[in-house]
Amino acid sequence: MSEAVLTVAQMVAAEKAAMAAGTSEWELMLKAGQGAAQWVHRAAGGRPVTVLCGPGNNGGDGYVIAEDLGSRGYDVDVIAPVEPSTDTARTARSQFGGDTREQGPFEHAIVVDCLFGYGLSRQVEGVYRELLEELSASDCFKIAIDVPSAVRSDCGSTLGPLPRYDLTLALGAWKQAHFLMPSMAMMGAKELIDLGLPLDDAHGVLSSRPALSAPAADAHKYTRGLVAVVAGEMPGAPLLSCEAGMRAGAGYVKLFSDRSHPDAPADLVIVEDDLDEALEDDRIDALLVGPGLGRGETSRERLAAALTSGRQCVLDADALHLLDDDLLEGVDPSRILLTPHEGELAALCESFGVEADGKLDRARSLSAATGLTVLAKGPDTILVGEGTTLFFPQGSSWLSVAGSGDVLAGICATRLAGSRSPMEAAQDAVWLHHEAARLAGPAFTALQLAHCVKPAMASFL
Ligand SMILES: NC(=O)C1=CN([C@@H]2O[C@H](COP(=O)(O)OP(=O)(O)OC[C@H]3O[C@@H](n4cnc5c(N)ncnc54)[C@H](OP(=O)(O)O)[C@@H]3O)[C@@H](O)[C@H]2O)[C@@H](O)CC1
Ligand SMILES: [K+]
């Protein structure tokens, strides 16, 4: 099944294309509703179900679900504050053999929310708000059809109460809100119901688990990739990057630093030569600059030296605050990966005169304006480059710890050194980072996370 992630406009276009090819909207709704009913049945296991139906086609899906469950012998209670307003939803209503009522309260242990789907267009008020508030306060099992009803499908922000759902059933394709905060964290388990829509042209894709490989039989340390981490004013952060990079498959990790690192592990090579000289080593496959770099003039010079060396680079942390058009002059942007968190992304957009709203739009606009690959990290991670946007399943919330980004940057640099493109390297790194966090369990430190990158590798071999 396609893992395309669509905007509302793309969703509407895909539906239109399916209809032009001979499938009616009613057929799509039947397929969607019956596919969803199958999941509701699995969750309900015979217990009575309440279905909340709104005025549009999301409500139409609700009537199809109610009819399907009724035909299986379920006790179904349908709450529909208004009559359906689209032809297809009216057809669905007329095919539903049961009664409806206009408002709550609802008592059943399973509630299916079909108030609004991707057609949500304004603040949720009145009886709809009351129903969503009641749903939020209830301890019932909550199922959202397509998207939670108060969620804007393109950006994941809310226009009303957002209950914590147990299950969200996406119809036809994933919407961006399924992988963006705050909505993604409230959707529970997510399942996709295939409607056979044409989705080949989608620019957004859900990242699939990478398959990594062990070194070739004749590998040596240089063929596996030499990573150089360019240190700066603060020693701790680049060391964390090295600790992670050393466990993500690199053959060799070096720290280019002009100060001593008494806490460095014995298996890390520290190069104290002049940076320009150190960068002349032809065997370097990728550089990481930014963690602990500082933002002063010397730091800027170190970043400039790294960029003008022509090597593939991962830029993180302070490097993202220093980066501007001047530093990128003559640099091939297709060899550079940026790993900003939300604040760094906003700062980058300002530096490059990119006007955009929200994380997704910022990452896309920055990449389009500069040609750089952008890994916009955070609880909802987005990767943009080569005209594509990749979305990711949610990682552990324990990743919100100081040094977590340094670890991610170190993994990115190692993957980039291992003959991966910036997009591939970043994708590998997000999965390794998430898996390391899963293995580290609760309340880990960044160093413990870096150590778990090694066992995380095993999950992808
Ligand atoms: N993808 C597919 O292939 C398939 C998709 N299907 C389903 O269609 C869904 C999209 O349907 P949709 O376009 O009819 O929009 P939907 O979300 O039901 O809501 C629009 C209605 O709500 C109203 N309204 C909006 N906001 C409001 C507010 N705050 N407060 C009050 N009213 C508000 C709005 O009114 P208006 O803005 O027009 O005044 C309009 O009446 C999609 O999510 C999926 O479930 C399947 O059936 C078939 C296959
Ligand atoms: K819904």
From TrEMBL:
Q: Where is the YjeF N-terminal domain?
A: 11-203
The Swiss-Prot or TrEMBL record lists the needed cofactor(s) as:
Mg(2+); K(+)
Report residues binding (6S)-NADPHX.
Answer: 57-61, 117-123, 128, 146, 237, 292, 341, 406
InterPro entries registered for this protein in UniProt: CARKD (IPR000631), Nnr (IPR030677), Ribokinase-like (IPR029056), YjeF_N_dom (IPR004443), YjeF_N_dom_sf (IPR036652)
Q: Which Pfam families does the annotation name? A: Carb_kinase (PF01256), YjeF_N (PF03853)
What GO terms describe the biological role, i.e. biological process, of this protein? metabolite repair; nicotinamide nucleotide metabolic process
**EC number(s) per UniProt?**
4.2.1.136, 5.1.99.6
**Residues reported to bind AMP:** K377, G378, P379, D380, T381, G405
Residue span(s) of domain YjeF C-terminal: 204-460
Cofactor annotation comment = Binds 1 potassium ion per subunit.
Q: Which UniProt keywords apply?
A: ATP-binding, Isomerase, Kinase, Lyase, Metal-binding, Multifunctional enzyme, NAD, NADP, Nucleotide-binding, Potassium, Transferase
Q: Which SUPFAM superfamilies match?
A: Ribokinase-like, YjeF N-terminal domain-like
The catalysed reaction is:
(6S)-NADHX + ADP = AMP + phosphate + NADH + H(+); (6R)-NADPHX = (6S)-NADPHX; (6S)-NADPHX + ADP = AMP + phosphate + NADPH + H(+); (6R)-NADHX = (6S)-NADHX
Residues binding K(+): N58, D113, S149
Q: Does the keyword Transferase apply?
A: yes
Q: Does NADP show up as a keyword for this record? A: yes
Gene Ontology terms for molecular function:
ADP-dependent NAD(P)H-hydrate dehydratase activity; ATP binding; kinase activity; metal ion binding; NAD(P)HX epimerase activity
Q: Which NCBIfam families match?
A: yjeF_cterm, yjeF_nterm
Oligomeric form and interacting partners: Homotetramer.
Task performed by this protein: Catalyzes the dehydration of the S-form of NAD(P)HX at the expense of ADP, which is converted to AMP. Together with NAD(P)HX epimerase, which catalyzes the epimerization of the S- and R-forms, the enzyme allows the repair of both epimers of NAD(P)HX, a damaged form of NAD(P)H that is a result of enzymatic or heat-dependent hydration. Catalyzes the epimerization of the S- and R-forms of NAD(P)HX, a damaged form of NAD(P)H that is a result of enzymatic or heat-dependent hydration. This is a prerequisite for the S-specific NAD(P)H-hydrate dehydratase to allow the repair of both epimers of NAD(P)HX.
Stated family = In the C-terminal section; belongs to the NnrD/CARKD family. Belongs to the NnrD/CARKD family.
**What protein name is recorded for this chain?**
Bifunctional NAD(P)H-hydrate repair enzyme
